[in-house]
Amino acid sequence: MTCPTRVLQFLIVAALLAALYSCAPTPVTPADTPEQSEAQADDARAAGDAARAAELYDAAAEGYEEAADRNRVSIAAARSWLEAEERDAATTALARVDPEHLGESDRDRFTLARAQLALQRERPDLAASLLDNLAEPPAGEEADYHRLRAAAAAVMDDHLKVAEQRVALEQHLETPSQREENRNLIWQALGRTPAPQLQEIDPDDDTYGGWVRLAQIARSHRLDPERLEEAVSDWEAAFPDHPARDHQATELITRFHERIRRPERVALLLPLSGDFREAGRAVRDGILSAYFSDNNQRPEITVHDTGGDPERALEALAEAREADSDAVIGPLTRGAVRAIADADESPPTLALNTLDDNGTAEHLYQFALTPETDARQAALHAQRRGWSSVVILAPRTDWGERVQRAFQEAFEETDGTVLQSEAYDAGDADFSGPIREVLNLRVSSLRHQELTRTLGQSLEYQPRRRQDVDAIFLAASPEAGRLLRPQLEYHHAQDVPVLSTAHIYGGAPRPEEDRDLDGLHFVDGPWLVGRSLGIPEALERERLAELLGDVLRREARLVALGIDAYRIFPYLEVLSEHPEERLDGLTGKLHLNSERVVERELVAARFVRGRPVFEQPATEGGDDGPTDDAE
C-alpha cells in the first residue's frame, strides 16, 4: 500500500471520528473544586437547564467533605431533578441528605423538596402534610411554597385552598404576565368551588375576601344581568384597588350580560302522549316552572307533542321553523334527537338526550341525565375519598352493564383498582350468592371445609371477608338497594363504605323506607339533596311541591332537567366559547364540552336516618360527615 493511500485512510478515519464527536452530547465535566461545580450549577439553573444543573450539584455533593455542604447541594440537586421531571434521580439525591446535620433553612428546603417529590408521585395528601409542618415559607422560597400548596390542593379538589394559596402567591410574582395567569387561576378555582361551600363563607375585607365576594356575586346573579351589574358596581366600590377589578369583574359583566342570547320564541318538542308521556310532562312542567320564575323578558313558548316518534319530531321541527322559532328545547327520546340532528336550517336546539356521534350539526346542543355521568362522578368521589381498591355489584341488565363499565373505566383512569365485579338478578330478594363471591366469603368457606377434612375434626369457624377492599360500588334501584345494604352488613361488610349513583335515591325523601340505606354514599344533583343555592324562591323545592304534587315526587330529576334546560339556554353560546365557565344548576354544576354536550358535576350525599344529607367535598383520605343533622 502506498504512503499517499495510508495518509488518505488516516484522514478519512480522523474526519469520521471528528464528526461522531461533534454529534455526541457534551458531557458534564466536574470542575476542580465542589465550590466551582456548585457555582456552575447555579448558573445552569438560572439559565433554565435544570438537568445540567442537577448533574453539577450531584458532582459538588461528591466533592464536599462537610455534611452541611453535602446536604445543601443534594437538596438543590433534588429540586433541579424534579424540575427536569426525573423523580428517581431526585429520590437518590434526597437519600444523601443527613437530617442530623441540617440547619433550619436547609431543613425547610428539604421539606419543600420532599413535598414536591410527593406531588410528582401523585401523593398530594403527603405533600400537604409535609408543607403543614412548615411554620412559614423559607426566605426566598415563598413562591415555590405557595405554588406547591396550591398544586396539592388542586389535585385534592380543594378549590378554596387553591384560591387562597394563589392569592398569597401574587406578591411574590415578578412579571405582569405571571400575575395575570395567577389571577385567572384564582378565578378558575373559585368557579369550581361547589356553590353551597362558596356561599356559606362570610368573606373578610382583604384581597382574598374580595375574590370570594366577587365569585359569590357571579354565582348569585349571573342569570340576572341587571342585578349582576348592580352587584359588581357595589363590589368595585368596596374593593377599589382589588387586582380582579380591571379584568375579572369587567369580563364577568361582558360574558354574562352582553353575550347572553335570550330567545323570543321557544318551541318545546316533547312526548306528551305515548310511552314517554310521563317523562315528557315532567320536563314540560319543569320548563314552565322556570319560565314563570324568570324576571327577565320572557319568550313566547309553543309546545309540540312528538309522542316519542322520530317522524312526529321532524314535523314539529318544521312547524317551529314556520313559526319563526329562534330556539328549540327537545326532543327527549334518542330516536327523535337522531332524526332532527342533521335537519337543515334549524334554530339553535338543546336536545334532551345524547347521541354517540354529534357529527357537525353546529346548531345542536345536548343535555341529558345519563347513568354513565352518574357512574363517572361516583368514581371521582371514590378517588377524592382515597378509596383506591373497590369491588362492584351491579344488576344483570343493560343499565347495570353501562353503569359498571362507566364506573370501572373512570375509576381505573385515576389509578384505582377494581378487584372484582359481580352481577346480581334485580328481581331476587336474596343476594347472598353474588355478595359472598365479591367479598371472597366463598373462598373462606372452602378453606374451612378443606381444613376440617384434613384434620378430621370440627373446627370453630368465623367467616372472614376479603381485607383488601376500600369500598363497594353498588349500582342499584332504591328497592334493590334497601335489600342489598343490610345483606352486605350481614355478610361482614358493615365497616366497608358503600357508594352508589343517584339511581339509589328515588328523588323524594322517604325516611321510613330508606332507613336501610343509612350510611350509604351517593352522588346526585344539588337540588335533589337540598343544597341548591342562589335559585329564585319560586323554584325552591317546597314551593314546587305545592304546585306539582305527585309529578315532583315521582319525577323530580326530570322536573329539574326541564328547569335547567330553560335557564341554561341563553348561555349556550358563551359556555361554548368558554368551557371553563360553570353555571350552578339544579341537576349539577353545568358546563359545555367540546362536543357541545352539557356536562354535570354532581355533589355527594349520604343517607342519615333515611334522608339524603349533603356532604362537603371530601379531600383525599378524609371522611367528612354531613353538614347538618337529619331528623
UniProtKB/TrEMBL annotation:
Example of a GO MF term: enzyme regulator activity
Keyword annotations: Cell outer membrane, Cell shape, Lipoprotein, Membrane, Palmitate, Peptidoglycan synthesis, Signal
Sequence segments annotated as region (Disordered): 28-47
Superkingdom per UniProt: Bacteria
GO cellular component terms attached to this protein's record: periplasmic side of cell outer membrane
Signal peptide coordinates: 1-24
InterPro entries per the UniProt record, alphabetical: LpoA, Peripla_BP_I, TPR-like_helical_dom_sf
GO annotation terms (biological process): peptidoglycan biosynthetic process; regulation of cell shape
Protein name: LppC family lipoprotein
Organism from which the protein derives: Halorhodospira halophila (strain DSM 244 / SL1) (Ectothiorhodospira halophila (strain DSM 244 / SL1))
Lineage per the UniProt record: Bacteria, Pseudomonadati, Pseudomonadota, Gammaproteobacteria, Chromatiales
